[in-house]
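G.,

No rush on this.
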Amino acid sequence: MVNTTFSAAVWPEDTFPEESRRYRQCALCTQKSRVIWGEGNPRASILIILDNPGAREDKEGNEYVCATRQTLQQALHQVNLSADDVYLTYLLKCRPLRRYDKEQARAFSKPFLIRQIHAMQPKFIVCLGDVVVQTMFDDKDTCVKDLRGAWHNLLGYRCIVSYHPLAVRRRPNLLRLFIEDWNMLAQQR
């Protein structure tokens, strides 16, 4: 997915709502955890959900765009969606820095995400990756490959499902399907 004319950009992080302070009670959060509520345009019509935020800074503390966001931004670029068209948020609001009880953290985090979705009222939701799909659709046996390529209803919003951007990077054969899913959404805008 190399495109020499594309340059990934750092999306602005959203300001924290008051309830983000309560999120610090998540077992995943530590003193050093950075809670990231979301990034991009909070008034965008497209809400993208990933499992958790990736690294934001290199070892020297310089801000950079992680591989997940690079792949995602390039796909958006390919289907003529701009950074202003989307808001990116996470099931888990902080990056895991240690081992944790995944089921407990997801169960704790999901109500925060649901309230965030209802507060934002997006036109479309995009669930990326099996973790998000299984959690949001309350079905541990479902996976992206079974749901992608079709429209779904999630919490009363139109929703599509696609692969996690890191899965696309690791398995380039998924790129065509990933772009197909984004094209399906771009055509409905």
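When you get to it, here's the other one too:
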Amino acid sequence: MLVRDLMTDDPVRIPENRTLREAEQLMREYDMRHVPVVNGRGDLVGILSDRDLRSYMPWESQSGVPNLEAIEKRSQPVTAAMQPDPISVTPEDEVPSVIDLMVEWKIGAVPVVEAGSETLVGIISYVDVLRAARSSL
């Protein structure tokens, strides 16, 4: 089975000049845990996960008092918290090799780029892989 058989085509993405606040809103709106980060040409430059956001942002105040550091960090560009130069695959790669990458690197999603370029064309997540495994059982 090939990546193109399981990947989400034309995934939601965020431009590298957008803020972490915008990324949070996008991830909430689309119920996503990973969002590819692209430059103006649509080339993959990074990936931002909910885990990246949690580790970059200070904890919110439990007292109801706004955390000024958290407010300030949310106005920074996504490049501040994203993982640059992420592992990526092409639509023609075999799914077992993607599974190996996910397990080895403990990642939940892998961006899919056009062969021979960095143009983002899809994303494949552990959920995609599990759905395929479930349907084959």
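The longest strand covers residues 44-49. The mean pLDDT is 91.

Enjoy the weekend,
O.
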